[in-house]
Amino acid sequence: MSIRPWRDITRRKSRQIHVGSVPVGGDAPITVQTMTNTLTSDAKATIEQIRRIEEAGADIVRVSCPDEDSTKALKEIVRATNIPIVADIHFHYKRAIEAAEAGASCLRINPGNIGSAARVREVVQAAKDHGLSMRIGVNAGSLERDLLEKYGEPCPEAMVESALDHARILQDHDFHEFKISVKASDVFLTVAAYQQLAEAIDCPLHLGVTEAGGLMTGTIKSSIGLGSMLWAGIGDTIRVSLSADPVEEVKVGFDILKSLNLRHRGVTIISCPSCARQGFDVIGTVKLLEERLAHIPTPMTLSVIGCVVNGPGEAEQTDIGFTGGGAGSGMVYLAGVTDHKIRNEEIVDHLVGLVEEKAKEIEAARAAEEAAKEPRVLAGD
């Protein structure tokens, strides 16, 4: 479906960098990332988790490298996975150099916190030699002491000053492949800091509300914070920080982007909250559909409405729709047009089959379109 003018979001113009093969910033799609919570030194467990993260559709994954055992394991982890890996180094410059040599695509590091100018030069040179980018990560809970003394407390001005100070160190070393984050657990502080930073520098911005909480509360806080910034055109890559499985972070990240028409992945289910008019168990049906359709990355829309009050209208706007009726059956809509009836006990299996078939059609058409763009080699060339 076409995007209406009142749905348009004008993104802030930023320069583009790369995290491995993934472009971040410029006109690139807004990327979704997460972070492993296994011990990085346990390569087997970390690889297994990253593979699940890849299946969920994440573009980038971050792993913590607090010690030498972690950077030793990183080489095996990089070799066994496909997604670009950001190595979170904390304060130890040797870990940054080891991670670069192990095959990381990006370093999460604040150059002003790793010691002498000589150490900064070594890290920057390692990044240049191995083609890495960096993320400057400022957190309200770990601001430099001099900034806390200057401003009295964590505030947007202190966070932005910290970020720009670290950025200046990299720029002075002729290194410009970096993005910045300025995160806080407070939504207001986070948004205000990003707003100021967006006006002060043209590098890509990594969005996140840090320590947002558990699955429910963290999703709400992140949706409000990230959603308001993305709506304003701020942000080039996002991470939803949840005390939950990293796969859930990826799902929520994509749902935030889908809700703003910024990026689409998988099936968007439009469903009613249900009421006494429902002709079938809407809540149970939607729960099963979400589980059964989680494997489909192809963007499409599916409406599941309990009765005919809003059902036909929603179905007209979706790829596939189902509206509950009477006598134990309901109507299936295809491309917004009434097509056939099915009995309530067939709803889940039938809709899953229709969605899977539609996904195959969309992917086949996409493949054919891409093939048509490829230059043809004529006989004798």
From TrEMBL:
Enzymatic reactions: (2E)-4-hydroxy-3-methylbut-2-enyl diphosphate + oxidized [flavodoxin] + H2O + 2 H(+) = 2-C-methyl-D-erythritol 2,4-cyclic diphosphate + reduced [flavodoxin]
Q: In which pathway does it act?
A: Isoprenoid biosynthesis; isopentenyl diphosphate biosynthesis via DXP pathway; isopentenyl diphosphate from 1-deoxy-D-xylulose 5-phosphate: step 5/6
Asked whether the UniProt record includes Oxidoreductase among its keywords, one would answer yes
Any GO MF annotation of the entry? iron ion binding
Which segments constitute the IspG C-terminal domain? Answer: 269-356
Question: Which residues does [4Fe-4S] cluster bind?
Answer: 272, 275, 307, 314
Q: One Pfam family of this protein, by short name?
A: GcpE
Needs which cofactor? Answer: [4Fe-4S] cluster
What's its top-level EC category? Answer: oxidoreductase
| InterPro entries in the cross-refs | Dihydropteroate_synth-like_sf, Enolase-like_C_sf, IspG_bac, IspG_bac-typ, IspG_C, IspG_TIM, NO2/SO3_Rdtase_4Fe4S_sf
Catalytic activity, EC: 1.17.7.3
Q: What does this gene product do?
A: Converts 2C-methyl-D-erythritol 2,4-cyclodiphosphate (ME-2,4cPP) into 1-hydroxy-2-methyl-2-(E)-butenyl 4-diphosphate.
- UniProt-recorded name of the protein: 4-hydroxy-3-methylbut-2-en-1-yl diphosphate synthase (flavodoxin)
